Every structure is written in C-alpha cells, then in structure tokens.
Amino acid sequence: MSDCLKDMQHQTAFELLSDDEKNILEENKTTISYKKNEIILKQGTIANTILYSKSGLFKLHIEGTKKDIILAIKKDKAFLGLSSLYYINKTYLYSVTALKNCEVDIYDKESFKSVLSKNANFSNEIVKYINHNSARIFNRFLCVAEKNARGKVADMLLCFANNIYESLEYTLAMTRQELADFVGLSMENTIRILKEFEVDKLIKMNGKNIEITNKDVLEKISDFG
Q: Is there a single domain that holds both residue 173 and residue 220?
C-alpha cells in the first residue's frame, strides 16, 4: 500500500468552540479567493495569520536555492500554516500555493492563540492535527529516501488515487515539474517512468488525465521498489 497517509479534515475542531470563542475568530477573520498558482503563504515572511481552506487544492513546499521540495498536498477543510503558530522566528516555514482556484478563511494569529489558551479541547485537537501533518511529511521523506525511482512514482500515483482524488481515475492539478518535485526525481525521469507504466498497462494517460488500470501491480512496485 502507498506510504502516503490520508490527510485529516479539520472542520470538527470548530465544533469544540463555545459561541463566544467562535465570535472571537469570526471577528478577526477575512475570507479571500485565490486563483490557481497564486502563492497563499510565502516561506520566510512574517507568520501573522492562520489559514483554513474552505475549498481548493494546495501544495505545501519548501523553496530551495535550486529546486522546490513538496512536503504535502492539502485539500479543503484543513488549516494551513499551523507549524508556524509558536515558531520562535515568527516566520512561515514553507510556502503554500493554490493548485486550483480556492477560497480560504484567514484568521489573525494572536486571536487564534487566545482561543487556544481558553479551550483545552480545541487546543488538543490542533496539536493532533500538527502531529498528523508531521507524520505525513516524515513518511513522504522516508519514501523519497528509501525507494527506487519506480517505487517513488508508483507511490505517488497511489497516494493521489487513495487520498487526494479518492478515485482510480483523476485529472492532475500539478505540472510535470511539480510531480518530479513531489517524488524527488528529475522531470525527465518522472516522465520516463510514467511512460513505462503506461507501456506495461499499469496506467492510462491522456494529457493530465490518469487512470490506474492495474492497482495490484502498482502497489507491489510501491511496496518493494
């Protein structure tokens, strides 16, 4: 099976708030729409907000001097920027870019922290999300470090099918370069392996449309690659 852990949706956290606590967040919230490829959070800038994704698809990525490293793909109903909540340098640790047109709620960080201090159950839920997000990223890096190139690409395809699109047929929101950044390979190697999988009748490709036609074999490649 794919090493990509299923993401947790965060909307249940709001159910733990009192009416007064909800009002604090609502009074210090702005809702903004972003277009595909717009940067929502910028690595290294002052972290003065916490975001909640109402709709869309997002990549969390570290911007290196030579290339990007994609840490995770996030869907809707998820907090963004939580890892910088109490970061001593008070900056965002990674960038967040929209992979689709999206809408996000932007909360003032200090107001968010004040609600955390008032509500232990809400605070515990946020810690749980941070821990799960860390586990997802650790698993991704373990996959990139341990698996061969075919195993990495197979894992990526299964991750998208199982946890992002929840279907064996999907339309990629990412470019070929972003796919390569996700698996830690060159774009040329990533494209070559995708074509090999198509020749082996494991997948069908039509532009950005992917259909997994032999999931069992793809899982074996992911497990033993």
A: yes
Torsion on CA atoms 72, 73, 74, 75, rounded to nearest 10: -160
H or E element in which residue 40 lies: strand 39-41
Nearest CA to 160 among 2, 53, 35, 38? 2
Cα-flanking dihedrals φ and ψ of residue 51, to 5°?
-110, 150
> Looking at residue 19, what DSSP letter applies?
H
For position 135, what pLDDT does the model report? 87
Task: State whether 129 and 43 are in the same domain.
Answer: yes
Give the pair of three-digit tokens for residue 115: 């609600």
Residues, the chain, total?
225
* pLDDT beneath 50, residues of the chain: 1-3
What is the torsional sign of CA 92, 55, 10, 123? positive
Range of the domain at 189: 147-224
For 104-165, the DSSP string reads: EEEEEHHHHHHHHHH-HHHHHHHHHHHHHHHHHHHHHHHHHHHS-HHHHHHHHHHHIIIIIS
Q: Is the pTM of this model over 0.85?
A: yes
Same domain, 76 and 131: yes
Instruction: Indicate the SS3 state at residue 212.
Output: strand
Q: In angstroms, how far is CA 42 from the centroid of its own chain?
A: 15
